[in-house]
Automatic annotation (TrEMBL):
Domain named A-factor biosynthesis hotdog: residues: 17-155, 190-312
InterPro entries: AfsA-like, AfsA_hotdog_dom
Name of the featured protein: Gamma-butyrolactone biosynthesis protein
Organism, scientific name: Glycomyces buryatensis
Region (Disordered): 306-334
Segments traversing the membrane: none
Length: 334
């Protein structure tokens, strides 16, 4: 039992409350609203997820994008339970940042990690007189240790309104069929993955300003598309941005992506990603200091930016002496 008497980690909450189709994609187990208006959530992090646990970093730790997903589910649950968002709402996340504050706390142990998320509201968005959006700050703890912090802003609207807005937006675009994206996916190790099925980049080119990757959109991927959508999922966009940063670290800086982890990111979504349009990620090195490398990233569809992000990658805590033969020099190159 957690310090909050109404919280435990024995079973997941209803999948409808976090807009998931698969029960296995629900990571929250309980919630309570505090007397000061803050909101607390309990959750559990999986150790055998085919997407979130498919990384080459050692020692194994929970994925920062899994941490983000727990924060995202917390926001949706909070919207329904505390803010009165209708159950048929479509949620639009505008921007968000995550800072991993304790990498050691995210190391996988002998049992799945039980987490507590504490959320406070920093701003509210109204559509007329109706509350229709929110901005929050939240922290995640494991065994009493704060492992991550986030700031997120999102809006919601009834599904009928969203569908009308989408039809209007799409009617203003040229969505005639483009040439099918050809080529092979990048090698899994080149983006810090074990499984080729979790690679979302097809080809990448080095330019005089940085690196440009091509994004492949696989709508059958169960981790990136839990249910059918009318747009490119935020989960895929975050993964494409991260993989582009990892590949840029290798190609531009000579760092081995197998020993790099995402530790800090600040992302803004500016337009909806359309399935019919080719999607590219542009990466520019923003700084290298000690064990970290920073990149400015932009995701675009035929020149129109749909998302931008600043991401920091940090070297894993595995010591050079324990790396495979020949890897110590690569990892220590910068």
């Amino acid at each position: 039992m957690t310090p909050h008497s109404s919280l435990d980690h024995s079973t997941t909450i209803s999948r409808e409350l976090v807009h998931r189709a698969s029960i296995a994609e629900v990571f929250l187990t309980g919630h309570c609203e505090e007397s000061d208006g803050s909101f607390t959530v309990a959750g559990q992090l999986p150790r055998t997820h085919s997407y979130y646990n498919d990384h080459t970093t050692s020692p194994a730790q929970y994925d920062p994008l899994l941490v983000l997903e727990v924060f995202r589910q917390t926001c949706i649950l909070f919207s329904h339970k505390a803010l009165g968002a209708p159950m048929d709402s479509a949620f639009i996340f505008d921007k968000g940042s995550v800072q991993i504050t304790d990498c050691d706390a995210l190391r996988m142990g002998a049992e799945p990690a039980e987490v507590i998320v504490h959320l406070t509201v920093t701003d509210r968005h109204f559509r007329g007189k109706n509350l229709a959006g929110c901005a929050i700050e939240a922290s995640m703890t494991i065994d009493g240790r704060v492992c991550a912090r986030t700031s997120l802003a999102w809006r919601w609207m009834r599904q009928k309104m969203w569908s009308t807005l989408r039809r209007r937006t799409r009617s203003s675009l040229d969505l005639t069929p483009r040439a099918h994206l050809t080529g092979t996916r990048l090698p899994a190790y080149a983006v810090g993955r074990h499984s080729p099925q979790n690679v979302v980049l097809v080809d990448a080119d080095i330019t005089d300003r940085g690196l440009i990757s091509k994004v492949t959109v696989d709508r059958s991927h169960p981790g990136l598309f839990d249910h059918p959508l009318d747009h490119i999922s935020g989960a895929l966009q975050f993964e494409a941005l991260r993989q582009t940063a990892l590949y840029a670290a290798s190609e531009l800086l000579g760092l081995d992506p197998r020993f790099l982890a995402l530790t800090d990111f600040d992302t803004e979504f500016t337009n909806v990603g359309e399935f019919e349009l080719p999607t590219d990620c542009h990466a520019v090195t923003a700084g290298v200091e000690g064990d970290t490398a920073c990149f400015e990233l932009s995701m675009r569809q035929e020149g129109t930016e749909i998302a931008s992000s600043r991401m920091r990658l940090s070297r894993s805590r595995q010591t050079p002496a324990s790396l495979p033969d020949g890897m110590s020099e690569l990892v220590a190159a910068h």
